[in-house]
Design goal:
It is built from 4 helices and 4 strands, in the order βαβαββαα. It is an alpha+beta fold. This is Glutaredoxin.
Length: about 80
C-alpha cells in the first residue's frame, strides 16, 4: 500500500472531504495537523509554497489539495497510486 500523508486543520471542510474520499477507497493515511506553525512551515516547504489545506502526498509525491485529488480520481489516476 501507498504511504499517504495529509496536512489538515480541524475545521477545514476540504480536509474532511479529502479524508472521506480516502476512507471510501479504504486507504490508510497519516494526518498532520498544521495548527502548529512549525508543521505548517514544513508543509509549505514540501508543497512548493502552498499555504492552504489540505495538502496531500502519496509516496512523497505532492498530489495537491482536495480538488486536485478529486480530479485525479475522476480521471482514474488515484486508484493506481493508492495500490502501489
Amino acid at each position: 500500500m501507498a504511504t499517504i500523508e495529509i496536512y489538515t486543520t480541524p475545521t477545514c471542510p476540504f480536509c474532511h472531504a479529502a479524508k472521506s474520499l480516502l476512507a471510501e477507497k479504504g486507504a490508510d493515511y497519516t494526518e498532520i495537523n498544521v495548527l502548529d506553525p512549525s508543521l505548517r512551515e514544513a508543509m509549505m516547504q514540501r508543497a512548493h509554497g502552498r499555504r492552504t489545506v489540505p495538502q496531500i502526498f502519496i509516496d512523497d509525491a505532492h498530489i495537491g489539495g482536495y480538488d486536485d485529488m478529486a480530479a485525479l480520481d475522476r480521471r482514474g489516476g488515484l486508484d493506481p497510486l493508492l495500490t502501489r
